[in-house]
């Protein structure tokens, strides 16, 4: 092969490679466009959530003693006032008997003092005893009456202590685990409660929005109260990916912004008649809003710069960077545009972050999902 032939072959290879690279470059510059139209849009936004029962009560004994009976089981439904545990009653029954006996003795002493005062009054009227003896009898009656009051208080305390040996549930709900057994010595200072009872007839589901989202929604509705009243019912996505059968309502918004996360906590209440939801469970609150006659664009058509969102419009065949304002809630795939775009505008649908102003655009067709080529 001559030198001339080799050079011709190399030049042909280089030309072929260049054509291939040019072809690939042209193919890489194909993008979609979207023609902006007014539409009805339902936006669903998901927020991680935790569940808590309406009431979560740790039950601890008010008196010390050995557990003699356990009248419930773990995970059982109990009613308010139902007996759960019995603590050894013998010493408290004895204390009550002693206090009642002391009360009877005090009442007898009071009656004797009263008889003595009546006698002194008659004798004083006949000038048989002195005024000093009369006053002494009066003071003795007052002292006896005070002893009766003290004994009555001791009876009340003893009776209460005896009643505390039967530990009852203060709420209706479902019991938790029982860390103690019959024969265990317990007191009011135990580290773990005897049992926990959770009222789960309604579940409080907590989730968070960013401070900016809450501020935008408050401005949109006028106030926090109007925001909660106007906010639609929310759905609950369970940990298994299924949607809970009943809707919930947002009934509380925290007035404090978490300094570490910059988030604001909200609470939604869900009915739980079937007890499917459990205290401590997790899921996701789904906030759904429906807007009429709005501009909706894919999030892939936008890019952010200094916390602001932009799109590229196609104006007279060239790209033009345009700032937009979007609604605070989104579904993770699209935005509702509040300001910056008008019906009929054509924007870049994908790869906006790779674009720049002034690129020439050739729109081949009109309508949604058009294609254009960058020259």
Task: Explain what you see.
This protein is α+β, with helices and mostly antiparallel strands and 375 residues long. The protein has 5 helices and 20 strands. Strands 2, 4, 7, 9, 10, 11, 12, 13, 14, 15, 16 and 17 form a 12-stranded antiparallel beta sheet that branches. A 4-stranded antiparallel beta sheet has the order 18-1-20-19. Helix 2 runs antiparallel to helix 3 and helix 4 (211-221) packs across helix 5. Mean pLDDT is 84; it is low at 21-28 and 365-375.
Quick description:
With 375 residues, the protein is an alpha+beta fold. Helices cover 30% and strands 37% of the residues. Helix 2 (90-125) packs antiparallel against helix 3 and helix 4 (211-221) crosses helix 5.
Number of helices: 5
* β-strand amount: 35-45%
Largest sheet: 12 strands, antiparallel
Q: Oligomer, anyone?
A: single chain
Task: Tell me the number of strands.
Answer: 20
Principal-axes shape call: elongated
Structural class based on helices, strands and sheet pairing: alpha+beta
- Give the proportion of residues in helices: 25-40%
What is the CA-atom radius of gyration, in angstroms?
41 Å
Low-confidence stretches: 21-28, 365-375
